[in-house]
Structure formats: structure tokens, C-alpha cells
């Protein structure tokens, strides 16, 4: 664990264990002086005025070393997916398995939203079967439709709206990932547990 | 109401940004030159974070459909109602801003603020995410809000925009060679034309790394100086994404002057302390 300065108005807590990111982010939100807390893959950013930083550094050091309680998990969301993505066949070849096996392993996983980034409501889901870890596409697509379900490295995720993107697309969903009329607007917020359900092919 | 006759190259509504939604992937957005926005609002008696128009490279033309008190700050545009002072104009008046000789972004505040609907607590246009009002188009009618504060009746001298950006090294300066850390502050970087509210893209000697591989996605903030594999730094602007996978060599501690840099301008970084990273 290391705490690094991020400019004058934020601290970056770097963690060795990705499983500690969310518990630390949750705990840090309640600390005096923490103006905003943003988790990512292995680190947590804490915005804080300069005068609050010395005491926060001490508290964050303590919090990062406390045992994590796996009981603190969020709501579960089930997302229906049609596994007909354009990269399904190529990715199955790359991973040395059949497309059916790739779909089954992806759909059977239990996932947790580790963090959001890239675009509003784009959730990085941890829990992908390690046999399914594959690099991004060598050439990103200029246009990925909203609802496309992809994998990249250790993560799986769903594009909330049409955008460019380099993840390998396995399927798609009709779920609305981002809706400004909803509070919070993101369907998948950090800590949410996610299960996928394969839609029956028609 | 104020009618937009022509927006110029890019005119957007901006306040102090959409704070507190980074964990959902929402950029902060807001005025690029926050000091200029605050000053414009102060001149017309608004709260500092009232919504104003951020004008990029002049060209904005407005038609006032009712009397309004306005002030323009930031880059000096020919045709401005007055220089850094509030001016009350009658209904029917027109404002036509020319291109500034120096600087890039100007802020036009109106007494009462622009009362477009707020989205997630802000009226700012986020050019990356598409959240908030669209960039201004000809024919847009902008509502004006109410304010109770008096017009202070002062004019304010503005500082000449600096071509030097103060940075603090880190969090990932240890990913770079000692020479790259020195080059960061010793180089007169040139602003590339593809710079925008998402990032100021610079060109100069490539900043070499001491380690390969990818950084797991990390949270970012406006001001982060991120270095992609080509070694050319990008200074994150207000609409930058909230996470990134390239190492951040330093963070700009006062981003306001960066808002006024134009393509082709030279810019330097200065640091209170040299990088503390070893190696």
C-alpha cells in the first residue's frame, strides 16, 4: 500500500490487492475532509483540501490495513444477454475453446462492479473466468452500439451508449445502463453484484 | 431571453462543473478557465458558479430580446461590450465578438445567469459525454435567471495569461527516466491543433519510460499530465475521462492558464520541487 499525491488537491491510494479497493473506497467516503472518492482497478483517488491531507493520510493508512469484510456487498442486478456478438467466434479461437464454452463460462460468472470509467455508466465488472482473459482488439472499433457486452483483460462490461471501443464483443443487452431520469443514473454502480442470463436463441 | 445568432467555432454553457459523479464515470466538465468565469460572474453580481457562455476563439453573436447586464472576461475579443466591466444593454442590442488577438477562451456572463436546465447539478456542456446542454447553435434562445445581489459597480484588472503551468510531479513520475522528468520542465512544448476541452495535446521530445507494460486503470483529474506510448504529453482538461490507463507524470495545480493556450503556442511546466522519484 502506498499513498501518492495527485496534484495539490487529491491523494491516490495504491493497493496491492484489488479486492481491497471497494472496501477502502466505501470507508474513505465517511472520513472528514474527503470531498470525493473515486475507485479504479488497483487504486482509490480521494479529493481533499491541502489542510485535510495529513490527517487523511493517517486515516487512509489505517483503513487500508484493516481486514476486509466480504459481507459488505451491494444489490444484485441480472442482465439478459443475447450472445451473438461479432467477436465471439474469433475470441473463442484465440482462447482455444468453442464459442459455446466461451458463452457458458461468461454467462455463469458472478461479477461485481469494481469501478466506472471510460464513459458515464460504463462499469468494469470483476469476476471474469481467468480462462476468458483476452487482450483488447488490435484496432478499436469507431462505433460500438449501446448495450454491446464485451471483454478486455480481466474485465467484462457493457457499453452504455454508442461510442468507439476496443473491447471484444460477445453479445448485447436491451438493459438501459445510463438514464439521467434515474437516481443514480447508472444501473451498475461500484459494488453492485451482476449476473448474466443468456437469452434463448430464437 | 438572449438569442444566439452565431456561436463561432465553439460556444458552450459552463458553470463550475458537475462535481461528485466521477465514481459513476462522469467528467467534472465546467469552465476551463475557472478564474475568468468567477470574475465575469462577480462583475455582474452573480454567485461565482452561475452559468455563463464559454466562447472559444470569439465569433459569438447574440441578440438581446430584453435588457441585460453582461460582462466579458478571459481572452479579449474585439467588439466586446466593455473590458472586464459590467455593461447594461437595452432590448434589441446585438453583441458581435471578433477573434481574440491573444488567448483562446472568453466568458460572457449575464446578470441572473443562463437558466438552462441543470443536469446532475450542473448546467455545463460536457463535450466528451454529451451530458448537459448541447453546444450553442444559431437560433437557440437562452433563458436568463434572477439574482438578488447588487451589481458591484467595479471593473477588475485581469492578469495576463501565463504560458507557464505549475505542476506537482507524480503520481507516476517513477515510470519515467530521469531525463524525461527533467525534459518535462525544461522543454518549450508546442500545443497541437487537436487540443480541446478533453485535453491539451503537446508535442516536443518524447518522454521515455523506464518500465513497459500497462498501468491498471487509475482515477484521473483535470490537470493530469498523461503520457501515452508515443511519449507526447496530454494535459487533461475539464471534459477528460475520469479514469485512464497511461501513467501520469505530473499534475497541473492551476489549470486556468491552460484554457488560454492556442494551437502552436509554446507552453512550459514549472515545478516547486524536482521529481523525487529515484532512478
Report what the structure shows.
The complex is a heterodimer of chains A (202) and B (279). Chain A contains four helices and 13 strands. Chain A is of the alpha+beta class. In chain A, strand 1 (2-5) and strand 2 form a beta hairpin. Chain A starts with a strand and ends with a strand. The model of chain A has no long low-confidence stretch (mean pLDDT 93). Chain B has 279 residues and is mainly beta. Chain B has helices spanning 34-43, 178-186, and strands at residues 2-6, 10-14, 52-56, 61-64, 68-74, 87-89, 94-96, 105-110, 141-142, 164-169, 189-191, 199-203, 218-219, 224-226, 234-236, 243-244, 248-252, 266-271. The A-B interface holds A 4-10, 12, 14, 18, 25, 36-45, 47, 115-122, 124, 161, 180, 184-186, 189-190 and B 19-26, 119-120, 129-131, 168, 170-171, 216-221, 223-224, 241-243, 248, 251-253.
In short:
The complex is a heterodimer of chains A (202) and B (279). Chain A is an alpha+beta fold and 202 residues long.
List the helices and strands and how they pair.
The complex is a heterodimer of chains A (202) and B (279).
Chain A: E1 2-5, E2 10-14, H1 21-29, E3 36-39, E4 43-47, H2 53-65, E5 76-81, H3 88-95, H4 99-108, E6 110-116, E7 123-126, E8 141-144, E9 148-152, E10 155-158, E11 163-165, E12 168-172, E13 193-198
Parallel strand pairs in A: 5-13
Antiparallel strand pairs in A: 1-2, 2-4, 3-4, 6-7, 6-13, 8-11, 9-10, 9-12
Helix pairs in contact in A: 3-4
Chain B: E1 2-6, E2 10-14, H1 34-43, E3 52-56, E4 61-64, E5 68-74, E6 87-89, E7 94-96, E8 105-110, E9 141-142, E10 164-169, H2 178-186, E11 189-191, E12 199-203, E13 218-219, E14 224-226, E15 234-236, E16 243-244, E17 248-252, E18 266-271
Parallel strand pairs in B: 10-18
Antiparallel strand pairs in B: 1-4, 1-9, 2-3, 3-8, 4-7, 5-6, 5-8, 10-17, 11-12, 11-18, 12-15, 13-16, 14-15, 14-17
Amino acid at each position: 500500500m502506498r499513498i501518492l499525491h495527485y496534484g495539490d488537491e487529491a491523494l491516490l491510494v495504491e493497493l496491492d490487492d484489488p479486492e481491497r479497493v471497494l472496501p477502502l473506497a466505501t470507508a474513505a467516503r465517511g472520513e472528514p475532509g474527503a470531498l470525493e472518492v473515486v475507485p479504479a482497478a488497483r487504486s482509490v483517488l480521494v479529493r481533499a483540501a491541502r489542510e485535510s491531507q495529513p490527517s487523511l493520510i493517517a486515516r487512509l493508512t489505517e483503513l487500508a490495513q484493516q481486514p476486509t469484510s466480504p459481507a459488505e456487498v451491494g444489490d444484485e442486478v441480472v442482465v439478459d444477454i443475447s450472445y451473438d456478438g461479432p467477436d465471439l467466434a474469433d475470441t473463442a479461437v484465440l482462447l482455444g475453446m468453442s464459442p459455446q464454452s466461451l458463452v457458458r463460462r461468461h454467462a455463469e460468472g458472478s461479477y461485481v462492479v469494481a469501478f466506472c470509467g471510460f464513459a458515464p455508466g460504463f462499469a468494469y465488472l470483476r469476476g471474469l473466468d481467468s480462462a476468458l482473459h483476452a487482450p483488447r482488439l488490435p484496432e478499436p472499433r469507431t462505433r460500438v452500439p449501446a448495450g454491446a457486452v464485451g471483454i478486455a483483460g480481466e474485465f467484462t462490461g457493457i457499453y452504455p451508449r454508442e461510442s468507439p471501443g476496443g473491447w471484444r464483443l460477445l453479445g448485447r443487452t436491451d438493459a438501459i445502463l445510463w438514464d439521467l431520469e434515474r437516481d443514480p443514473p447508472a444501473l451498475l454502480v461500484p459494488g453492485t453484484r451482476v449476473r448474466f442470463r443468456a437469452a434463448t436463441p430464437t | 431571453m438572449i438569442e444566439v445568432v452565431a456561436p463561432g467555432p465553439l460556444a458552450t454553457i459552463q458553470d463550475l462543473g458537475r462535481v461528485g459523479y466521477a465514481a459513476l464515470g462522469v467528467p467534472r466538465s465546467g469552465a476551463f478557465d475557472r478564474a475568468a468565469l468567477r470574475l465575469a460572474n462577480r462583475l455582474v453580481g452573480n454567485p461565482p458558479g452561475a452559468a455563463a457562455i464559454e466562447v472559444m476563439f470569439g465569433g459569438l453573436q447574440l441578440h438581446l430580446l430584453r435588457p441585460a447586464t453582461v460582462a466579458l472576461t478571459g481572452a479579449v475579443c474585439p467588439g466586446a461590450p466593455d473590458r472586464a466591466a459590467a455593461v447594461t444593454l437595452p432590448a434589441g442590442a446585438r453583441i458581435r465578438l471578433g477573434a481574440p488577438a491573444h488567448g483562446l477562451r472568453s466568458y460572457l456572463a449575464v446578470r441572473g445567469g443562463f437558466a438552462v436546465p441543470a443536469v446532475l447539478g450542473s448546467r455545463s456542456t460536457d463535450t466528451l459525454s454529451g451530458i448537459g446542454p448541447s453546444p450553442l447553435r444559431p437560433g437557440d434562445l437562452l433563458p436568463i435567471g434572477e439574482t438578488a445581489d447588487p451589481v458591484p459597480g467595479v471593473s477588475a484588472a485581469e492578469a495576463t495569461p501565463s504560458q507557464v503551468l505549475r505542476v506537482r510531479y507524480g503520481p507516476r513520475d517513477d515510470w519515467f527516466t530521469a531525463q524525461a522528468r527533467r525534459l518535462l520542465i525544461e522543454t518549450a512544448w508546442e500545443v497541437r491543433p487537436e487540443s480541446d476541452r478533453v485535453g491539451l495535446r503537446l508535442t516536443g521530445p518524447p518522454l521515455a519510460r523506464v518500465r513497459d507494460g500497462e498501468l491498471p486503470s487509475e482515477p484521473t483529474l483535470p490537470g493530469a499530465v498523461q503520457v501515452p506510448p508515443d511519449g507526447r504529453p496530454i494535459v487533461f482538461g475539464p471534459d477528460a475521462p475520469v479514469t485512464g490507463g497511461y501513467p501520469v507524470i505530473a499534475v497541473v495545480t492551476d489549470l486556468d492558464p491552460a484554457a488560454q493556450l492556442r494551437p502552436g503556442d509554446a507552453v512550459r511546466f514549472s515545478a516547486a520541487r524536482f521529481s523525487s522519484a529515484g532512478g
